[in-house]
Design goal:
Helices cover 45% and strands 16% of the residues. It has 2 domains: 6-200, 2-enoyl-CoA Hydratase, Chain A, domain 1 (Alpha-Beta Complex), CATH 3.90.226.10; 204-250, Lyase 2-enoyl-coa Hydratase, Chain  A, domain 2 (Orthogonal Bundle), CATH 1.10.12. The longest helix is centred in the N-terminal third of the chain and has 16 residues, at 79-94. Helix 4 packs across helix 5 and helix 8 runs antiparallel to helix 9 (222-237). The strands form 2 sheets. Strands 1-2-3-5-7-10 form a 6-stranded mixed β-sheet, with helices on both faces. A 4-stranded mixed β-sheet has the order 4-6-8-9. With 260 residues, it is of the alpha/beta class.
């Protein structure tokens, strides 16, 4: 029986997905990726789940990268498919139709930083450390680091981090925009829950459409992105939530959104 490395707990509409292989600093081995993939497939079917938090087991590591021991099996010919599998799983997380927050409780290196970057929002514990150390192994980031990092912080800073294997603490990650908030050690998940509950109080369809417009618009020209925004707005204006939101505003009361 395959050992379990990824756990999911659902409470108050929030799914907390924990990667827990602490002896290996929660490294992303093959079984871990498979389990993570399956959990997101299951969550996609669960309409009771309104948002997701991804974190690591313990207080030392979020995910400290890929399992380097598996690299011995990878050749120049098999590397594209090996990396492509992880990329597809991370794409699935990035495009998930509900908000996903990374609660980064420690090391987020290599694949760990790449996993955090495919989440919508990143909250770092004050002891978190970020980096892309692949260059020191004679390779490059393979789960999206060369693509998502420059999109988040700009190409110059991304090249510095990747080329020189530079490590960032939580404060520097916040300064350059890699993370959005810092929490005390051990409190990243609690801070993520607090933010996610606030997001969940808003119109679910509007949150979904905002995510779609932002994520997909980044890969378009400005004109096409604006067209997409208008289309997403059309979806919002066709909902009961839009009517409820306007009515609640005029009546000076909290809106009671239904997600339809």
């Amino acid at each position: 029986m395959e050992k379990k490395f990824v756990f999911c707990q659902i409470e108050e509409g929030i799914a907390i997905v924990t990667i827990d292989n602490q002896p290996a600093l929660n490294a992303l081995n093959g079984p871990t990726l498979t389990q993570l993939d399956q959990i997101f497939d299951d969550l996609a079917k669960n309409e009771a789940v309104k948002g997701i938090i991804i974190t690591g087991g313990g207080e030392k590591s979020f995910v400290a990268g890929a399992d380097i021991s598996e690299f011995n099996q990878v050749t120049g010919d098999t590397a594209p498919s090996f990396m492509g599998r992880g990329q597809r799983i991370f794409d699935k997380i990035e495009s998930f139709d509900r908000p996903v927050i990374a609660a980064i409780n420690g090391f987020a290196l290599g694949g760990g930083n790449e996993l955090a970057m495919c989440c919508d929002i990143r909250i770092a514990a004050e002891n978190a450390i970020f980096g892309q150390p692949e260059i020191s192994l004679g390779i490059i980031p393979g789960y999206g680091g060369t693509q998502r990092l420059p999109r988040l912080i700009g190409p110059g800073k991304a090249k510095e981090i990747i080329f020189a294997d530079e490590r960032l603490n939580a404060q520097e990650a916040l300064r350059i925009g890699l993370v959005q908030r810092i929490a005390p050690k051990g409190q990243a998940v609690a801070e993520a829950k607090k933010l996610l509950k606030k997001i969940m109080s808003k119109g679910p369809v509007a949150v979904k459409m905002a995510k779609k417009a932002i994520n997909e618009g980044l890969g378009m020209s400005l004109r096409k992105g604006l067209d997409l925004e208008a289309q997403c707005q059309g979806v919002c204006f066709g909902t009961e939530d839009k009517d409820e939101g306007a009515k609640a505003f005029l009546e000076k009361r909290p809106a009671n959104f239904k997600g339809k």
